[in-house]
Amino acid sequence: MEKIALADNLQLSRVIAGCMRTLDAGMDGEKLRAFVHSCLEMGVDTFDHAPVYGAGRCEQIFGDEVLKKDPSLRERIRIVTKAGIILPGQRGNSHIYYDSTKENLLAEMDASLARLCTDHVDLLLIHRPDVLGDPGEIAEALETIVKCGKALQVGVSNYEPAGFEALQSFLDVKLAANQMEFSVKATDNFFNGVVDTARRYRSGLMAWSPLGGGSVFTGQDEQSVRLRKTLQEIAGARGTTMDAIMYAFLYRHPANICVITGTMNTARMKTAVEALDIELSYDEWYGILAASRGFDVP
Fold first, then answer.
1. What is the pLDDT of residue 122?
2. Ordered structural domains, the chain, with CATH
3. Global pTM value
């Protein structure tokens, strides 16, 4: 499995297992441990979490049923988690909101570590840009977390270029990654400066929802219909599947985007891994882009 170096002390597997659906997938302890071992056998050593996934239960079951029951696994895996989203009712609040105050980020970090049954995560991300957040205060919190050894590296998620650069300007440590939406259906982040900013700062990119939420397979909107036709043609010519081509579309970009799978099905994870061997041609890649946007490049 190809590894992407985000820092001297951090490499992530190119394919990342997203744990958002741990509860929905009915992952009891035995099933979850089996899934983790299957991922490791395929070379997938990175697992993506967030406190809002299952209102903390996804982190909790991973900690209780994987790391606590098999502590030796901690040396073999990389853990990504996030902070900064407050769910309705979590604090007596009526609305979901983002909180990137130092107090909250430090508290969420400690709570995640307790749930995950570990003394550190490999990468902590600010989950969403907090409009009321002070980048100086956010930077102070992130630097404190790194200095205390609670996260090896820090980064952001869903940050557009200006917000990324503003936060980075206050930091003495590098933002190691930006987790964004990338897929054959969501191509805007290739063009709006997100990729260029990551390349400028030598930061990694992580793609959430790399299969576009699955709507390409059955959606009847014009974009889905166009994409399905193009993807089926390319997949048929290459003797593979549509989802493999959708993963390959992201792998083809020279920014070395890591993909976060939304599945906890081992066979579907295998598809994401095997797609690393597919190198789309320029014509195929730009053909998919045209199908997504509804027009060829000028």
1. 98
2. 3-293 (3.20.20.100)
3. 0.96
